[in-house]
Amino acid sequence: MLGGNRAQLSKYNKQLHLLQHVGEYRKIAFAHVSATILKLQAMGAELEELRTRVGSAELQRDYGKEPVPLEMHIESIRMGVERLEAGREKAREAER
Length: 96
What we know:
The chain is mostly helical. Helix content is about 85%, strand content about 0%.
C-alpha cells in the first residue's frame, strides 16, 4: 500500500513545524508580557499619584492650611480616572 502513511507524515510535519517555531512564539509572548507589565506599572504609578492627591486634602485640613476647593479635588480625581481608563482602553486595543 503506497501513501498509506500520508496522514501520519502530514501530522509529523505539522508538529515539526510547531517545534521549530517555539522560540519565535516564546519571544512574541515574552514581548506581550513585558509590555503588559510596563503598562500595569504605569497604571499603578497613576493610581498612587491619585491616592496622594486625594490624601493631600486631608493633610491640608489637618495642618490648618487653606483648604483646596472640593471642585478642584473632584476635577483632579476625574482627570486621574480618565487617564486610567484611557490606559486600560489602549491595553485592550493592543490585545486585539
